[in-house]
Amino acid sequence: MSDPLSTLPGYLLRRASAAALAGLNRRLAPLGLRHVDASLLLILHSMPGTTQSEAGRLLDIQRANMVPIVSRLEGRGLIDRQKVDGRSQGLHLSAKGDALCAEVREEIEAYELALLAGLPDDMREGAVAVLDAFWRAAEALNVEAPSGEEG
Amino acid sequence: MSDPLSTLPGYLLRRASAAALAGLNRRLAPLGLRHVDASLLLILHSMPGTTQSEAGRLLDIQRANMVPIVSRLEGRGLIDRQKVDGRSQGLHLSAKGDALCAEVREEIEAYELALLAGLPDDMREGAVAVLDAFWRAAEALNVEAPSGEEG
DNA sequence: CCTTATCGTTATAGATCATAACAAATGACA
DNA sequence: TGTCATTTGTTATGATCTATAACGATAAGG
């Protein structure tokens, strides 16, 4: 046996994810963005007014870790904060952010197509569903046990 | 449209990978290991004498970043270094490391089965191949362009 | 000997992530 | 009204992971 890792979904996921994210970051670098930034812009494009906590939940990023991300994008004038609440702030794309978001969408869609084009023909159709299924399966395992089974 | 990310392979890969790795780390925590450590133990179990550079290439980890990993495992008496060369050192599991590796394999195989069990029946068979295909596709894109097209 | 490449290593900086804590605001409820 | 649990944004901190550059020692090919 030469590679004991080649059958382990966890390892294969990590490897594929790292490669894909590297490619994505490389494409986004000319725009001065990382993939996290780009994801947030896409969210705000589709769902203007999303708060940073909500966006964090969508992106699986903790509230605390959203702070530098939002600050960075706000500092660049790409997004605005509008008070929704006494505590919540809805995030919106600025004009500049919206323009950049259009470029982001082009880059990401091109990358997505290129990635899917690199798959064997017979896998292409169901591939995205497989990734989603892996996420659901892994999440189910994480919810099942992690810090007490009080449910 | 509510979630603009749900069709993007890159995002889905990242999310699935993060969830799977979190679950794996949680299972390995009682053994005092992280998934990277566990991967290295598995490699050394199947391929004793692998050097740390070779292992780094298998794991997609830079030489420099292998140093703390190997040092940590050596410090715990789980692996030994045996000079192969004037410069290379073959890594081997110690008796203690081999015993721990057996536990690691149990945990990882259990996790792998649980993860696959959580997939829809019609996806289970080809799922691992899809992950491998995504990696190959992403790698191909990364090799194609990244630092000059002198080929 | 010289050149080139590899290995292990150190150092450094940036990203990512988890956790704990806090003030302010909100909602539920008596 | 007041009380209590929850949520939001925030600061701070430490751990982990990654990328890059550099160095000395070694190896391989001339």
TrEMBL record, chains A, B:
Pfam families assigned to the protein according to its UniProt record, in alphabetical order: MarR
Gene3D superfamilies: Winged helix-like DNA-binding domain superfamily/Winged helix DNA-binding domain
A molecular function (GO) term: DNA-binding transcription factor activity
SMART domains named among the record's database cross-references: HTH_MARR
Domain of life: Bacteria
Domain HTH marR-type: 6-136
PROSITE patterns: HTH_MARR_2
Transmembrane spans: none
Biological processes annotated in GO: response to stress
InterPro entries recorded: HTH_MarR-typ (IPR000835), MarR/SlyA-like (IPR039422), WH-like_DNA-bd_sf (IPR036388), WH_DNA-bd_sf (IPR036390)
Protein name: MarR family transcriptional regulator
